[in-house]
Design brief:
Layout: H1 13-27, E1 29-32, E2 35-38, E3 42-46, E4 50-56, E5 65-70, E6 73-80, E7 96-103, E8 113-117, E9 120-126
Length: 133
């Protein structure tokens, strides 16, 4: 099924499909000077005890991923090196630097946990418990 974009009148469904695919691909990369910083899809949820971020990072190993929590910002940084192979007929998989940043307050920094399983990075950020006397 094709979604209809009321702001742009497309001649047919194929034009709409091309527009949707290109919009998605372009939004996945942010131009930063000469470099391209790729993004990745995430799901963020909240429980009574904390926050859970699930990030899709297929093809990455845990040693290619860096997680930083500083000044109430969580940064997920993943880096995949370019392949030396140059005889591609078609190339769609992205390489290079991937990064997402999230503002998350009141987190117990020392209890943040992360696991990588089947290409999904799961980060658990427990909420701070403030005791009032």
């Amino acid at each position: 099924m094709f979604k209809i974009n009321p702001e742009k009148r497309h001649k047919n469904a194929l034009d709409q499909l091309f527009y949707d695919v290109m919009e998605e691909k372009v939004s996945c990369a942010v131009k930063k000077g000469e470099n391209v910083i790729n993004t990745f899809d995430v799901d963020v949820s909240e429980t009574d005890r904390g926050y859970i971020i699930e990030a899709e990072l297929p093809g990455f190993s845990i040693d290619q991923i860096t997680i930083i929590y500083e000044d109430n910002y969580l940064s997920i940084i993943a880096q995949k090196q370019e392949s030396n192979k140059s005889d591609f007929i078609r190339r769609e998989r992205r390489n290079g630097l991937f990064r997402r940043n999230f503002f998350v307050e009141d987190v117990e920094r020392e209890n943040i946990k992360a696991t990588l399983k089947h290409g999904v990075l799961t980060i658990e950020l427990p909420k701070s418990t403030h005791t009032v006397f």
